[in-house]
Design goal:
By secondary structure, the chain is mainly α. It has 7 helices and no strands.
């Protein structure tokens, strides 16, 4: 693990962020399953939207829909889901920072998440800057390459997110809880 990543976990460990997260997670009845459900629903919205836009860019989904219109309609809900996932995920990360920041899979998830979100914002930004940006013939192959990289990043985020807990069980003695 990179030392700065472990240092972030050590910084949060014992802080007011951890204390607040643990208090809410342990004292508010039903909060952990509720916040986890919100997080999973946010994942579904983000993955559904990102995958649909990328598959449309590849020409594999809803060819009758205009990419610009699809992007315009899906962007507000996508941003809402990203924010809600940041907040909901923070409760678990802040509650047990050493569990996450000492886990190399969590680091990989954050790298792929940063790349996927950057690509998504770039995709949306190019639409706002130039109407029909991805529809132009000169950008078809660039768009397809972009879509493959974006889809791969989102798939890796999803796989890493699920793998975090499994790696913990495989390497349990390494981490202190």
């Amino acid at each position: 693990m990179p030392e700065f990543f472990v240092a972030i976990g050590d910084l949060i460990n014992g802080s007011f962020l951890q204390a607040g997260s643990l208090w809410v997670l342990t004292n508010v009845p039903g909060f952990p399953p509720i916040i986890q459900t919100i997080h999973i629903l946010g994942i579904a919205v983000i993955m559904g939207t990102a995958v649909l836009l990328n598959l449309r860019l590849l020409g594999l989904a809803v060819p009758s829909q205009n990419i610009t219109e699809m992007t315009k309609r899906s962007t507000p809900i996508l941003y809402f889901a990203l924010v809600s996932n940041f907040i909901s995920g923070s409760f678990f990360v802040f509650g047990r920072p050493t569990r996450y920041f000492n886990n190399p899979v969590f680091a990989w998830k954050m790298v792929f998440l940063a790349a996927a979100v950057f690509l998504l914002i770039y995709f949306i930004g190019m639409h706002r800057k130039t109407a029909g940006y991805w529809d132009q013939e000169s950008r078809r192959w660039t768009g397809k390459t972009f879509a493959f990289i974006s889809l791969g990043s989102w798939i890796m985020v999803s796989l890493a997110g699920r793998w975090i807990a499994y790696l913990e069980h495989l390497q349990y003695p390494i981490w202190s809880f």
